[in-house]
Amino acid sequence: MEKLTTRKEYDGIKSKVEHLIAEATEKGMLEPDAENEYTLKISELCKLMADYEDNYLNMYPLHSKTPLIESIENYFNLHDMLPKDGAKLLDVKESFLEQVMAGKRKITMPLAKRLHSKMGINADLILEFA
Predict the structure, then answer these.
(1) Alpha-carbon distance 37 to 44, whole Å?
(2) Which CATH class is domain 67-129?
(3) What is the pLDDT of residues 97-108, one digit of tens each?
(4) Where residue 59 falls among pLDDT bands split at 50, 70, 90?
């Protein structure tokens, strides 16, 4: 199979991967750095699933936190602020701020200005990671 194009195909491959993982685990063939028929097939199928997720499910890859996001979190923690308090301080909706913090939304110019003026976050840091 070259590419998944339907949810039914995706679900079928997902089920097959789960079965292969269970079978390989039972046989002790999922050790770290193992390369065998199970790990190769699981890898191949997972790549198909990842492509489908990127193209059809609007799933985002996992990202590590940027230094900017860490600075915002540190500010909130230092000031005992909940997300709703941070959103109020920054004059944005809480849902928008949560999406920014999760890496799902970009930091807008107005938000960047408020991060600097209201929270004292370094402008160079904002420019580099916004």
Answers:
(1) 11
(2) mainly alpha
(3) 988 888 778 898
(4) low
